[in-house]
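Task: fold both queries, return C-alpha cells.
Query 1:
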Amino acid sequence: MKKLILLFPFLILFSSTGFAQGELDDQQKIFFRNEQSVGLLLNSTGWGLGLRYGKRINYLNKRLYEVDFTHIKHPKEIKTTNPYFPNNRGFVFGKLNLFMNLRAGMGHQREVFKKIDSGGIAVRYFGSAGPSLGFYKPIYYEVLYSLYDNIYEIKIEKFSEGIHQSSDIYGRASFFKGFDEIKFVPGAYVKLGLNFEYSKIDRVIHALEVGVTFDAFTKKIPIMASEDNKQFFFALFVSYRFGRIVDPKRQTIIPDMEELRDTF
C-alpha cells in the first residue's frame, strides 16, 4: 500500500509534462481509434492481468470491454520459512486457500486532455463494472512428524489451527496440489481510474493507470485461519498498459511484425 501511495506524486508530475511543447506530431492519424490492450496490474491486495477492448463512441469517448484476472491476498499474509530448514519452500503460516478472481465488465472512458505532440501525454478517466467469479483452492503443507531421535516423517496436509505449529512446517507443498478441490463464489466489481497515455507512435498504446477497485462476493472468503476473513475487498492499483490502435477498416486478429515491434 505504501509503495502505491508513493507513486501518486510521481504520476502527477509525469502527467503535467504532457502540457509542455514537444516535437510536433506529423504522423498519419487513425480517426476511429478503437483499441486493444493488455494491462499488468499491481494493487494493494495482490497482482493481476487484464485484457481490454475500447470502441470509439465519438471524438472523446470510448466504450470499454474488459476481462481481468487477479490474485487477492489477505492483509495478514506474511511469508516465512522454517528456521531449521531455511532453503526449503517458503510458506504463509495459517493460510487455508489461494484466492483468485476473474472479472468481466463494461465501462466508459473519456479523454480530458488530448496529446497534441509526439512527446505529450493524453489524460483520460474511466470506470467499469460487472460480474466476477472468485475461486479458491486449498493450500497444502509439508508437515514434520518425529519418529525417533532426529528422524522425521513428512506428510502432505492442509493447515489445522489446533494441531500445527510454525516449527512443524517443513515447507509449502506443490502448487498443483488441491486443484481438484477448487470452490467457486460469485461476485461483482467496480473500477475507477485515470489513464496517462504517453506513446510517441500514434497507433501504439503505452500507458500508466492508477485508480481504485471494489470487489464484493456472496460470502466471506476463507483465505486465512482467522475470524477476519472478508467478502468485500477495496484496493488501490497501478497498472502498465500496452497495446495498439485498431482501424475498423483493416482490423486483423494478428498484427503484422512492424506493429508488434512498435508495440514493444
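Query 1 returned. Query 2:
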Amino acid sequence: MKKRILLYLITNRLAFLRSPEIQYDDLPRLQLEVIGKAVRAGCQLIQIREKDMSAKELAAFTRAAVECARPHGARVLVNDRLDVAMAAGADGVHLRASSIPAREVRAVAAKTGLDDFLIGVSTHSVVEAKSAEDGGADFIVCGPVYDTPSKRAFGPPLGLDAFAEILDAVETPVLAVGGINLSNYREPLRRGAAGVAAIGLFADVENLEQTIRSITAYMGA
C-alpha cells in the first residue's frame, strides 16, 4: 500500500437525487455503475458508506459492489459495520475514530481466518492517528484537509501544515480527505500522503474515468 498513490472512492448514492429525473429505486444501480467505472479506471479502494440502508440492504449492496470491484483488483470496505462487512464478503471495514478499536477488529477477523482483512480508520489529529496506528490499522484517512460544507459544523479544516504533522507522526499510510478536488489534490501528495479519499471528487460521472486516470498518472502512480 506504500508503493502507489491510493484512490479511495466513498459512496453516497443519495447524491444522485439532486437530479429530478432520477428515482430512489434507481440509486443502487447508479452507484454500482459509478463503482464499475472507477475500478476499471484504476481506483483501488471503495468505501460503502450508505448510512440509511438496513443491514439487509447494505449487505446486498456490498455483495454487488464486491462482485463489481474484485475482478479489477479493487477492494471494498464497509463503513463502520464489521458485521455486514464480514457477512457480505467485503475486503475490510472502515472505522470512525470513535468506533471499536482496530485491534479488536483485527482479533475478530483473525479468528475467522481473514488474515488479509483491511482496516481503515478515520482520524482528525496526531493523537487519533497514533491510536489508529497502534491499534493495527492498515491505513489512515485524515481530514478534513480543506474546507468542505459537510464538515463545517465540526470546526475549521486541518490545513496542510497540520496534515503534514500527522504524516510525520505515523508510518502507516495516510490518505487525505475533505474538500479534495482536481485543483488541490497534488498538495497533500507532495507532503507525503499515500493517496486521497473523497466523495465529491468522484461525483462527476461523465468525467470520472479521466479524473482517476489523471490522478493515478501523477507522480508516476
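Both queries returned. Flag for query 2: The mean pLDDT is 93.
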